[in-house]
Design brief:
Layout lengths: L10 E3 L22 E7 L8 E7 L1 H22 L11 H6 L6 E2 L2 H16 L9 H19 L9 H8 L7 E4 L4 E4 L12 H15 L5 E5 L2 E5 L8 E6 L6 E7 L4 E6 L4 E3 L5 E3 L15 E6 L2 H13 L2 H14 L6 E7 L9 E4 L2 E5 L7 E3 L1
Antiparallel strand pairs: 1-9, 2-3, 3-7, 4-6, 5-6, 7-8, 8-11, 9-10, 10-18, 11-14, 12-13, 14-15, 15-17, 16-17
Length: 379
């Protein structure tokens, strides 16, 4: 979905040998009817990331569920792609290409995605905004060019303030008309574009996990890059242990133990970034207020049952101050009083915030919400 950008796993299932991807050792053919923990992974089935699935079941059932998951990931990737079109399908790129021209009839899943994105725009006071595609596209182009230059030993360039401010004039939900009854979307300004990178993978992961639940998965976990969604309890009754990436190296900085169905989504600054001419690092997460990449944290992880919510809110909190982020969490709790939601912020020690629940390790200061007290293992 993102151009030539395979993103490494930011949140990993520590029970799957750390963050390594690949197929687990296959049982012998004579043992295929035996219930075991199976795992497999793919790197070319959507969203330019490693897709990993594990389930405790028989091999035949596991293979069927894994293939179904990959098929669905490919479908959602194509629907939400803003860079490529596909035969017989109107997708996000089709909507953007027809901005200022005509409404586009789309799959109901796109309508659902956009409506959910609007809900998080409202919840966050405009901080989560998929309508700033014009700004994000500028940064995407500079970042891709910068990464190429960095690989050649050169520093990348930065867009001008004037370029960003001009693009920002063409943003906002006022330009987006959604007709749910007729399943159409129309962008009235030809220079406005939608970028659903902050929600698409989480939305897809949640929908696919729900589909797997309908197929009978009871003890499994689905991992798409920084999005992990557990399904039910672990077969042996122990908690799921989810590792959170060390921003400065390989492996996990900490692990979180949670039981039952839960989503863990991390937004981080250490995968898709480049070094610019001023010597600073610029990541892919753009603050809609400043129009520049956010710099407060190395990562923010959201833990809540719904993967789509976790995706939106991890992106949102990454751009907000610690205090503002906690206010958004309280807004979410008020709107969903029966739903658990927790957060983890990882930052440099010199950017430490005033948190009742915190930990220091190596170069990092880690703040977390009260509900995670006692659930974190420090690596």
């Amino acid at each position: 979905m993102k151009k030539k950008n395979i993103v490494k796993t930011l949140v990993c299932l520590t029970l799957l040998s750390g963050c390594a991807s690949g197929t687990s050792a296959s049982p012998s053919a004579s043992a295929e009817d035996e219930v075991k923990n199976y795992s497999n992974a793919s790197i070319d089935d959507g969203f330019d990331t490693v897709i990993q699935f594990q389930e405790t079941t028989t091999k035949e059932i596991f293979d069927s569920h894994f293939n179904d998951a990959l098929s669905l990931f490919r479908r959602y990737n194509d629907l939400f792609d803003i860079y490529n079109t596909y035969d017989g399908m109107n997708n996000l790129k089709t909507i953007n290409d027809n901005a200022g021209i005509q409404p586009v009839e789309v799959d109901p899943e796109i309508i659902s995605l956009l409506q959910e994105a609007k809900e998080y725009y409202d919840l966050s006071g405009g901080e989560f905004d998929i309508t700033i595609g014009s700004v994000l596209n500028i940064w995407h182009n500079y970042r891709e060019d910068g990464i190429t230059k960095n690989e050649a030993g050169e520093k990348g360039d930065l867009p001008s303030d004037e370029e960003l401010q001009e693009a920002a004039k063409h943003t906002g939900w006022d330009y987006v008309e959604i007709d749910a009854e007729n399943s159409t979307v129309y962008i009235t300004d030809p220079d406005v574009s939608l970028d659903v990178g902050g929600i698409a993978k989480g939305y897809a992961t949640e929908k696919i996990a729900q589909a797997l639940e309908q197929e009978g998965v009871e003890h499994g976990a689905l991992n798409a890059g920084g999005n992990t969604r557990t399904i039910g309890e672990k077969y042996n009754g122990t908690p799921w242990n989810i590792g959170i990436q060390n921003p400065g190296g390989s492996g996990s900085l900490l692990a979180v133990a949670q039981s039952g169905t839960m989503s863990f989504v991390t937004s981080g600054d250490y995968e898709r970034y480049y070094i610019a001419s001023d010597g600073r690092s610029y990541c892919h997460i753009i603050d809609p207020e400043s129009l520049y990449p956010a710099t407060r944290y190395h990562s923010v992880t959201i833990i809540t049952p719904d993967s789509s919510a976790a995706d939106c809110l991890s992106t949102t909190l990454f751009t907000l101050s610690f205090e503002e982020g906690n206010k958004v969490l309280e807004e979410y709790r008020s709107a969903h009083p029966d739903t658990t939601i927790e957060a983890i912020w990882i930052m440099d020690k010199d950017k430490a915030v005033d948190s009742e629940y915190s930990h220091e390790t190596g170069d990092y200061y880690i703040a977390y919400t009260a509900g995670l007290e006692g659930a974190i293992t420090w690596q």
